[in-house]
Specification:
The protein is an alpha/beta fold. It has a single domain, classed as Vaccinia Virus protein VP39 (Rossmann fold). It is about 35% helix and about 25% strand. α7 packs antiparallel against α8. It is globular. The structure holds S-adenosylmethionine. The site of S-adenosylmethionine (SAM) has 18 residues, from loops.
Length: about 250
């Protein structure tokens, strides 16, 4: 999705865009934000959307940059956070280099590396990494390839339970996500990049980061299916939660 498309969802963002921080039942994001906070430390929320994580950052960091390609989303974020004086709003396209905001001690980036276009994504990844000061931390959430595979398996099981033969059940389930590129699958008909832990390790270490933690940020099956049957239990769908330190 590009600037115009993100602008068009700004007014209905809460209904349309899955709320990762609100579904982070183990508090992985808040835990990392708090753990890396020091007096005077600065933070940036890259692809901040309507500002769900800005109040948390503003409570724990001296100055916060809220960066997004969508001016409409930034306007909603500014309204949300009206009482918070230490947030600066920056309208920028991260696929095009770091412009208009400084490097900070902490960079939070939740489901912003979604672009199916390898050129735009390369820019997003590089700008994100270059936005962290040396010695600082990147806290990242990205969609997981393994979670799509698991959800597809569950869809096959649902299709079978509805009487489809095994070949049809698998074909229909695969058609729903139709892979288009390296880790690119359809999410609500939008081609969306997903990552494996190994890809994250390579991307981050190539850009001077030491991976400190990678964990599943798990969600309920009701995030994938309208009425998941009672037998659909663990393992659950997930995004990857990553903490990495910039070492060079
Ligand atoms: C899925 S939303 C996540 C928003 C927020 N991080 C959250 O968790 O609620 C992705 C956000 O990334 C922003 N975004 C996408 N591509 C971008 C780019 N090239 N530069 C800056 N922001 C971008 C979108 O405008 C959108 O607000």
């Amino acid at each position: 999705m590009q600037e115009k498309e993100w602008d068009s969802v700004a007014a209905t963002f809460e209904e349309e865009v899955f709320n990762v921080p609100a579904n982070d039942r183990r508090g992985l994001i808040e835990g990392a934000v708090v753990r890396h906070a020091k007096p005077g430390a600065t933070a940036t929320d890259l692809g901040c959307g309507v500002g769900r994580t800005l109040p948390l950052l503003a409570r724990h960091y001296a100055r916060v940059n809220a960066v997004d390609i969508s001016s409409a989303c930034l306007a909603v974020a500014r309204e949300h956070c009206a009482g918070l004086a230490n947030i600066r709003y920056v309208h920028a396209d991260l696929s095009n280099g770091r412009k208009g905001f400084p490097q900070t001690d902490l960079v939070l980036c939740i489901n912003t590396w979604l672009s199916a276009d390898p050129v735009l994504r390369e820019g997003l990844v590089s700008t994100t990494c270059r936005s962290v000061v040396r010695g600082g931390h990147l806290v990242l959430v990205v969609p997981a390839v393994g979670s799509v595979r698991l959800t597809t398996l569950r869809q096959v099981q649902l299709n079978r339970a509805q009487g489809m033969d095994p070949v049809d059940a698998e074909r229909r389930a695969l058609d729903q996500v139709a892979a288009r590129g390296l880790g690119v699958f359809l999410v609500d008909s939008v081609p969306t990049k997903h990552f494996s832990p190994e890809e994250l390790e390579v991307l981050l270490s190539d850009r001077g980061f030491a991976l400190e933690r990678i964990e599943k940020l798990e969600y309920g099956w009701d995030t994938e299916f309208l009425e998941p049957p009672g037998w659909m239990k663990a393992p659950y769908p997930w995004d990857w939660f990553v903490e990495a330190r910039r070492v060079r």
